[in-house]
Amino acid sequence: MEVLAGLEEKIKLLIARTKELKEQNDRLQTENTMLKSEDQEIKTENAHLIEENEQLSDKLGAVRDSVSKSNEQIEELSQEKKLTKSAVDDLIKSINSLVENENQL
After folding, report:
1. pLDDT confidence bin for 101, thresholds 50/70/90
2. Is 4 left (phi over 0), alpha (psi -120 to 50) or beta?
3. For residue 32, is it left (φ>0), alpha (ψ between -120 and 50) or beta?
């Protein structure tokens, strides 16, 4: 009889342990499902961020090109300004020379 009682006790402990393990397994499966869902959301967000990053990179490239062209135009205008100033200075010198020649006559 004692053997039977000992076996009953061991069976009860095994059943309790089995229940605990099943509950733990259920919790882990629930957590796993939630983590899979979260992982999918993160992957989706990552894909959107990659796309946005590519768009911003393209825009940045366009802005850099625009700035480069603007700098070239500024350089061209600066050269034209120097040439115009030089031409105006020469014209003023010529006019002053003509005026001096007229005054000497």
Report:
1. confident
2. alpha
3. alpha
